[in-house]
Specification:
This protein is α+β, with helices and mostly antiparallel strands. The chain is about 45% helix and about 15% strand. The chain has 10 helices and 13 strands. The structure holds zinc ion (3 copies).
């Protein structure tokens, strides 16, 4: 009957979830919901004892409180959870109520390591001393349940700083009393989704087809009879365990199917998550004991994008968060009697802002106008300078050309004069003042040579002046052009 109920349930779920991706694995259906649940971070709640119990709904509404009036808090991510595991990170009071945070027993698996096969003669204290030599943030260490063989046992160590956790892990092991102890990462087992109505795995209450809430002990309807003392008998296998016990052959089978599906779909795992595969769920000959996420921390953004805003892991920074100050409720309420005055004040302020805005715009407009004027002035000055330079250059050129014509003329005249003097000298050879005439001719000759030299120098300087004035004109033209383009 129970087996029948179980099978019926699974088949119905398959129909219910037909829009979801259903994977058939050894005839066991694994819903997408169960896969998602298996890889999610399930951080335990954090308890905070309150000396004055929270009974006032007004004060407690922003935080969840349990039946005893204490606080029950849930951290959204591992970093925040680890931060809140340190009692020193809490304020002494919250909303004028003294609080006493309860230190959680364990850190999440990402902050845990396993020391394997530690000989029983090495005490926890020995190990603690050795570890404290290497790191500063050891949170907890304890023997793992059921790992003691009489000679050795596994020990779980939990470290607050993930950097220190990585550092210790990269060493690969610890040496105590010349004994090398293997150090490994602690792998979390995948979480099984249990229905709180029928206690079967793979679906939630909302999708359950059972008509009543079943007892985890006896499997019967909880609403009838006393179920505190009822006979423990699994409704699936009829063995002496609770319906949600991982010992159950059906649960083991389901877990194996779930893990095999996850192994085929490691992309479902959030970044840097590793899941443990218990030996009973491994295939024969498969030594690998873990499923590792294919997404590295570098690809977190891509992962988050893929999940369309359902952010599963974001780097968390405690500095960007502060404790809520719940005592400030009163300041948010506005006294109704001052409403009119308040509105008037707001209106006045708004008018003032409008006025200032207008003034500001006027000022900007004035600045623009002044800028335009200045640009125009500079432009006209430049063009005047430009035309003046042009005129100036023309004048200089004219002077040069006059000089150019005048000097050869003068030198030709002098040559003629020289010849005349010579002729005159021939005719009056017997004249006494021939010596004087000779000196005169000599003087005229040197004047002619000197004038030729001057003429050459004049031509050279004229050329360089011409080049300079050309360059000047081009620069002025550029200045005018750039002003015009700036203005546009
Ligand atoms: Zn159910
Ligand atoms: Zn019962
Ligand atoms: Zn069972």
């Amino acid at each position: 009957m129970s087996n029948l109920r179980h099978n019926l349930n699974e088949n119905n779920n398959a129909k219910n979830d037909k829009n979801n991706e259903i994977i058939q694995n050894n005839n066991i259906y694994i819903s997408q919901q169960a896969l998602n649940f298996a890889v999610e971070q399930h951080l335990p709640p954090l308890y905070i004892k309150c000396t004055l119990k929270l009974v006032d709904h007004h004060k407690g509404k922003e935080i969840i409180k349990d039946k005893n009036g204490d606080l029950l808090c849930f951290a959204k991510n591992i970093e925040l959870f680890v931060h809140l595991c340190d009692v020193n990170n809490y304020p002494k009071t919250l909303a004028q109520i003294d609080i006493l945070p309860i230190r959680p027993k364990h850190l999440p698996s990402q902050h845990s390591l396993i020391l394997k096969f530690v000989p029983n003669y090495i005490t926890l204290e020995d190990i603690q001393n050795e570890i404290n030599l290497k790191i500063n943030t050891l949170f907890n260490m304890e023997e793992m349940n059921g790992s003691n063989t009489g000679k050795s046992r596994h020990i779980r160590i939990e470290i607050k700083s993930s950097t220190e956790c990585d550092k210790l892990l990269s060493n690969g092991g610890l040496t105590i009393d010349d004994h090398i102890i293997e150090l490994n990462e602690f792998l979390a087992s995948p979480q099984l989704l249990f229905c709180s109505k029928c206690n079967d795995s793979g679906h939630v209450r909302k999708h359950c087809n059972l008509q009543y809430d079943a007892c985890r002990r006896c499997g019967e309807d909880k609403s009838t009879g006393n179920h505190n003392e009822c006979n423990i008998c699994c409704h699936r296998c009829k063995q002496n365990h609770l319906a949600t016990d991982y010992k159950c052959q059906f649960i083991i089978g389901y877990r194996r199917a779930l893990l095999q599906t996850l192994k085929q779909k490691p992309h479902l795992l959030p970044p840097n998550v590793k899941l443990f595969i218990p030996s009973e769920c491994r295939d024969d000959g498969d030594k690998s004991n873990k499923i590792v996420s294919k997404i590295s921390t570098k690809n977190i953004t891509a992962y988050n994008d893929k999940y369309n805003g359902q952010v599963k892991h974001l780097p968390f920074n405690i500095n960007s968060h502060s404790w809520p100050s719940l005592g400030k409720h009163q300041s948010n309420t506005i006294d109704l009697t001052t409403d009119d005055g308040l509105w008037k004040e707001i209106k006045n302020n708004q008018n003032e802002i409008e006025k200032l805005k207008e003034e500001f715009n006027n000022k900007i407009q004035q600045c623009h106008n002044r800028y335009d004027d200045n640009i125009k002035k500079i432009k006209s000055i430049l063009s005047i300078v430009s035309s003046q330079t042009k005129y100036q250059n023309e004048n200089v050129t004219r002077c040069y050309s006059i000089l150019n014509k005048f000097i050869p003329l003068l030198s030709a005249t002098l040559i003629l004069f020289q010849k005349l003097t010579e002729n005159y000298n021939e005719q009056n050879k017997m004249n006494d003042n021939s010596n004087e005439t000779h000196q005169l001719i000599q003087y005229i000759s040197s004047s002619i040579v000197y004038m030729k030299e001057r003429n050459d120098a004049l031509i050279t300087s004229q050329k360089s002046l011409h080049n300079l004035s050309d360059q000047q004109g081009q620069l002025l033209l550029q200045a005018v052009n750039s002003l015009e383009s700036n203005h546009e």
